[in-house]
Amino acid sequence: MQIEFLSYLRDAAGSDCLEVPAATTVGELLRVLGERCGPGLAGKLPSAGNGAAEAAVMVNGRHFSRLGGLDAPLVEGDVVRIFPVVEGG
Hints:
There is one protein chain. This protein is α+β, with helices and mostly antiparallel strands and 89 residues long. The chain has three helices and five strands. The chain has a five-stranded mixed sheet with strand order 2-1-5-3-4. Strand 3 and strand 4 form a beta hairpin. The relative contact order is 0.26.
């Protein structure tokens, strides 16, 4: 499974693109990424206890919340992009 990090999340992850073992859900993938990349990234990722995450997650071009949230299924070949949430006014 290919994971791409954009903007300052590249630095937090230590890479702009990672290959990780297959995960069955978005939540499982984010947990694995947090463990693998450390607290600099883990605290920015969506999780059950982090409603104010700094990162948005897209799976094959669709926001993960539209696919089932943290329970959204993943399959081999999915492309996951993780990028900062943009705010402003």
